[in-house]
Amino acid sequence: MAFLVIEERGQKRHHPIAAARVSIGRAPDNDVVISDEKSSRHHLVIEQQGRSFLVRDLKSKNGSFIDGLRIQEQPLDFGDCVTIGNAKIFLETEESTAFETAAHTPLEPVSENAEDSVSGTMLTVHAADWREILGAFEGPARKPGVQEFLDAACQFAAKVIGNVRTGLFARDGGEFKVLAFRNFLSSRPLDEVPRDFQAKAARCLDSKAPILEKSDTAPARAYLPVSLHDESALLLYIEAESKSRDFSDADQQAVRAIVHPVAALAGLKTALGERILLKQEVARLERELDKLKEDLQRRIDLQTADLSKREASLGGQQLKHDYSSIIGRSAKMRDVFSMIDKVTDQAVPVLIIGESGTGKDLIAKALHENSRRAIAGQFVAENCAALPETLLESELFGYVKGAFTGADRDKVGLFETADNGTIFLDEIGETTPAFQAKLLRVLEDGIFRPVGSNKVKHANFRLVCATNRSLEEMVKAGKFRQDLYYRINVITIKLPPLRDRREDIPLLVEHFLNQAAVEAGEEPKRPSSGVMRAMMEYAWPGNVRELENEIKRMVALAHGDKVGVDGMSPALRGAASAVEMDADDDLPLKELVELVEKRRIDEVLKRTEGNKSKAAEILGLSRLGLRKKMERYGMSGADDL
Q1: Which residue in 374, 544, 548, 604 has the most C-beta neighbors within 10 A?
Q2: In this structure, what CATH number is given to the domain that contains residue 602?
Q3: Which of 333, 338, 343, 382 lies closest to 544 in space, CA to CA?
Q4: Other residues' Cβ atoms within 10 Å of the Cβ of residue 422
Q5: Residue 318's CB: how many other CB atoms inside 10 A?
Q6: Contact assessment for residue 307 and residue 299, using Cβ atoms and an 8 Å cutoff
Q7: What letter does residue 282 receive in the DSSP assignment?
Q8: What are 456-470's pLDDT values in tens digits?
Q9: In angstroms, what CA-CA distances link 600 with 69, 243, 330, 542?
Q10: Consecutive H or E run containing 426
Q11: Which range of residues forms the domain containing residue 521?
């Protein structure tokens, strides 16, 4: 069973994951309550999806972090640590803690003289007592594996003697690890045993003699060796739960009697264990292999994102704001985020330049939502190419009743709506010179007059414009006012086309596949490696919007849990042919991305005639980043960087 280990204020506690969803936060109605002051009332959830786990932040104020990186939603692996303020939450399995099974600690057949391990004393036990002792193991005997026997031994010892806790330990090198236990307070018995436990346990096994101790300041304790062949390999530990509890002679005989069924079950290991353990190991490896196959795409995406993060860190970039809603971890996108960080709280106009489909509207929203204006005002947007000039003017400036036919009431314009907020004018290059003149007057002093009105209004807004055209060339051609160009182009943010940030493609593919799965109410589909290879090679003239539409098409035409060749558009199918894609090719995504990256680096180096500085610039990498990649792929010339 998987469970969570919560470390907070120097204390550690455990929460088994028994449901498909575990809620975590400061509110008392959560499954796991975190008291850290940076925890929101409902901070995050951890969801179990088959054999996988997912952590999802519930739009918390202070965020959730993995390896220092703020996350919104991502897969969670065993051993991962999610941080909320100073609180740490680990995803663990029994195998990753003090729990160990017989599969990890092989047992040998019992010695025929097992009773000699108890001080050489031959115990006289009635037949009825032996039937009761061995009867405790009747149920576990019918089950495969040895762990049930070990658990039964500890349970029986605790039941027969009463008011004690018991544990079976094995010596592993110089230390002891737990195999089974009963009545301990936590899942880590070694944290609760006496400080001198390791030394006394070793002395007990080395001498092959039991140790029984009692003092006025500590509970009674018994250390009993379990002899396998001629070696004492297991230790049975019994401790009274109170200082007033002592071991009577009858207790001591009953304690020693426990050694026999424990040794007997160890002997059964020879007959049952090897074959069963081998089958269990094969099954475990098969499950791990299945999980690796399922998680491979997400792992390579996360590795790519992590690599981009480290490269950005080496470049000294530290982002102040959260850009998880914008899918992209490449060096070029990190540069964009860094620029947004610098100008978010500035009042100056921003011009976003990028090809169609690159996500200029997302950048505009990020500028607003990360700024102080998000508290005081709204984000309003208008596509200047979608409306004729007269209608665009009415939308932006507003109008009064009777201004024109059909104006039966006053209408507030977008300039007024965006007061104290942000207005985003997309495709600004499609406006007419006449409209540009009216817009310029508004930008000069924030004053405008609604259509048909003789009264002026004032609005304080931040202007963000976007275009996929070269306004500079339009100015030279007399198609765009030069004074307006200078007014809106105080800060320029250039968005890279998708073909120049191919390392983001796996992240985008996973995002759109997950999005499609949510809309359809089903499990996310996976792309075949052949399809993924074609996507990595395709030029994407329509950029991210084209990729999104391509994913929607393939999901709609998919059969089973994969999107394949038959669902690709003719354009993408052409790219697939160009790279000699095999529909049945199962090349892992990590190897695929490495192959494409290596080929891309090689192509750029040839184009720049070996100029590595220029190649690094074209690839959007630092010189150090290019050298790291060349070293990783075994490419010559890396030492020259």
Answers
A1: 544
A2: 1.10.10.60
A3: 333
A4: 23
A5: 9
A6: no
A7: H
A8: 999 999 999 999 999
A9: 28, 73, 15, 21
A10: strand 422-426
A11: 499-577
